[in-house]
């Protein structure tokens, strides 16, 4: 039964491929007619509409074969976007792919279905001859080929068996051929991949520089408004105490007590600031111990799954720690979660971090700075963040941080 379903799925895949390629003649005709006159009148609309349709068809085939889109980003006005489309090499690769898909898609479906029909007619040729001994208006093709000859109809039975085997075996290879065709013409070229990677690294470098500058400003502000102010008060109290210690020892003692308390508060703030920059436990004992210590201070129940058997590079450990801390903080503050699951798994080439909470959901990176901060932190290492947060929950954050092996 499963094999029967698999054969039906293969035929369905081929049918969709044929449907994708079927509009090719009409679209190519529109492009050919409107292209030379694309700068005037209705030609612009026809050309733009045809290119939009071509991209939609190519995108559908890419999704079926798992290829990533290679297009240049579209920005600016309608004219600027149209010029970008025309100058994009991927556009012309789409136009080259379209007639190939028409031939491969329609031809594959016709061949696959035709083989099954031919196999059935050949296998049933003797029965058809017995049921239709005289010519009719709807004679099967096998009876016309054999002239209703009894021996010849029986000869077609083993031929039908061979055709059935071929019809069973061939569709998966036709699918593979269409997949290779799409990969060759629709997937990004090496140059396009390199350009996209350079653009992405340029963007992430700028984001990392901005994040570093913002972090330095935060540290400066915390020092100025916190520890520095307390140390100034401490110095003033010590100065006044030294002036009045002979004349009024009681006042001097009170000032020294206040200075001692201020020194303790300043020390606590400095420790908190250092912990925010780079927790000592992270430097001393590694990522697993630092995340475990982070979870111990949580106000909600946290299930922890740590599969980290080695120390990673210090920048990677810091990025993973702070990304986990930010995700946990978001879950506690914004989602009303009662339970959070945190998982860190070392997969060799990357660390995979998953934070799942049972809150009300609705998390959106475009509406808050927390998730954007995580994205910027991970993007500096060419990592990524995936967010699944439907209304009503649960919220699942999946982070991947390349770390080498």
From TrEMBL:
Domain Histidine kinase/HSP90-like ATPase intervals: 322-402
GO MF term set: kinase activity
The reaction(s) this protein catalyses: ATP + protein L-histidine = ADP + protein N-phospho-L-histidine
Domain Putative sensor: 14-186
Domain of life: Bacteria
Domain Signal transduction histidine kinase subgroup 3 dimerisation and phosphoacceptor: 215-282
Keywords: ATP-binding, Kinase, Membrane, Nucleotide-binding, Phosphoprotein, Transferase, Transmembrane, Transmembrane helix, Two-component regulatory system
Enzyme Commission number(s) from the entry: 2.7.13.3
Pfam families: HATPase_c, HisKA_3, Sensor
Protein name in UniProt: histidine kinase
Entry keyword Transmembrane: yes
Membrane-traversing stretches: 12-32, 38-54, 152-170
Keyword ATP-binding carried by entry: yes
Enzyme class per UniProt: transferase
